[in-house]
Amino acid sequence: MKVAVVKESAPGERRVALVPETVPRLVQAGLEVLVEEGAGDGAWFPDSAYIAAGAAIANTADLYATADVILTVTRPDEASVGKLRAGQTVIGMLAPLIDPQFARELAERGVTAVSLDGLPRTLSRAQGMDALTSQANVAGYKAVLVAAEAYGRFFPLLITAAGTARPAKLLVLGTGVAGLQAIGTARRLGAQVSGYDVRPASKGEVESLGATFVELTSPVSAAGEGGYARELTAEERDAQQAELAGHIARHDVVITTAQVPGRRPPLLVTADAVAAMAAGSVIVDMGASALGGNVAGSVPGQIVVTPNGVTIIGAQNLPSTVPTAASNAYSRNISAVLLNMVTDGALSIDTTDDIQAGVVVAHGGEVVHPAVSKLLSEQQPRPAPAPAPAPAGAGPGASDVPATSTEGGTVVDRAGH
Ligand code: NAD
After folding, report:
1. Mean of the per-residue pLDDT values for the chain?
2. Sign of CA dihedral 324, 389, 230, 117
3. Can you tell me the mean pLDDT for 159-188?
4. Cα torsion angle, 152, 156, 158, 163, sign
5. pLDDT above 90 covers what percent of the chain?
6. What is the per-residue pLDDT for 229?
7. What are phi and psi of 387, to 5 degrees?
8. pLDDT tens, residue by residue, 37-86
9. In CA terms, which of 4, 50, 280, 326 is 20 to 30 Å from 269?
10. How far apart are the first and last CA of the chain?
11. Count of alpha carbons within 13 angstroms of residue 330, beta-carbon side
């Protein structure tokens, strides 16, 4: 069976689905690994490293013509989809719950689609396959560096001959995987860190990292299914926003990561909360997406400086900005998913398996994933191909904060990282 690693097609995407280190594991399982020319360049893995690891380099046409399985990080663009043929399998972060029509398109082409974002994350044997977690870890780490760079002061307490600098007060809103990594990273940089989440279980996790948990006087307990949060009611949301505003105003840096599966990201930092922050404060909105973000006035992929001097960074695809580490982790995740589906050197689709039931989206000409087919039955077919909105910090899209904005304040131009 030929397994191909493609060069990512999303603009600015620097990750690669498989790194040279993982190639021998696939070869030992009887698989032949083909790598599209230059696929690893953005993550600093030259073609020569893949050859040394036992892979062959192929040009785009040969690769699509001969591959049985195609490994990708984000979903392929329309041109790449056009090259797929019936019987091929695509494995990647295909975001079928964000764009179920894409899953239908692959099914209609006879392509088997396997999406790592559907993995049952709480299964212990799936831990090594959890790309949402591995990429959220990278994103949480990088969000802190992006904030530190934009912040005009130090993060740590510094006592020097020229005076004492107080540590930055940093607040993380949403303390799932990315938020906890942001807390750990900000603590290592010396900031004074607080965290807040609607899931009661997160209090202990925040405190175990040495940060302070922010308790609201109108506490909302919004633990949903599978360890995720549920969407708040309008009343709960209003109370939360009003009370959080006071905490936000007392912080120099705020990083937001809040997500609710299948819903638009909740708004946690209102325009009033931003207006109450001191000049020089920085907000990184990891929830920024085409669906709206956690912060009023954030624009995905852009930096806005408000009239009161608050820098709002609409972070987008942060994992791509730490491409080597993100690719290393993703490569282990995707190879584990692939090997879980291989029997005697061939792909064996079996949706009675817990893991496959979560990740196999399309097979045999049908959309087989129940949640995706449900969405499709509720939707009209899309009129024209549309790019998927980038999920927080981990999805397809351009680099993190490259562009400028004219909305909501002065514009700051900034190169991607
Ligand atoms: P996520 O990306 O879905 O959301 C990020 C955080 O935002 C979550 O902690 C969520 O509670 C929080 N949030 C949502 N709405 C909010 C609101 N209105 N106000 C404040 N915070 C809000 O979450 P995630 O990082 O993917 O993690 C989700 C859960 O899954 C966590 O409980 C995590 O520990 C768990 N998880 C478990 C495993 C495992 O068992 N191996 C692996 C990964 C994640």
Report:
1. 91
2. negative
3. 97
4. positive
5. 82
6. 87
7. -70, 145
8. 999 999 999 999 999 999 999 999 999 999 999 999 999 999 999 999 99
9. 326
10. 37
11. 34
CA 66 to chain centre: 30
Q: In the structure encoding, which two tokens stand for residue 235, read together? A: 């009343």
Find where tokens 């129940």 sit: 370
196 CA → ligand 1 middle, Å: 12
CB 199 within 8 A of CB 179: no
Query: Which atom from ligand 1 is nearest to the alpha carbon of 122?
Result: 40
For ligand 1, atom 27, which residue shows the shortest CA distance? Answer: 176
**Contact call for residues 171 and 253 (beta carbons, < 8 A):** yes
pTM of the model: 0.91
Instruction: Tell me which amino acid residue 193 is.
Output: V
C-alpha 223 to ligand 1 mean position (Å): 9
Could you give phi then psi for residue 252, rounded to 5 degrees? -90, -35
- Average pLDDT of 102-121? 96
**Dihedral pair phi/psi, residue 172, rounded to 5°:** -110, 120
Q: For residue 325, with 0-12 CB atoms within 10 Å meaning exposed, 13-18 middle and 19 or more buried, which class applies?
A: middle
Q: Return the closest-CA partner of residue 283 out of 306, 253, 249.
A: 253
323: its two tokens: 């491409």
76 lines ligand 1 (CB under 6 A): no
Contacts of 207 (CB under 8 A, 6+ apart): 213
Question: How far from chain centre, in Å, is Cα 280?
Answer: 27
Ligand 1, residues 97, 121, 209, 218: which to mutate, most atoms within 8 A of Cβ?
Answer: 121
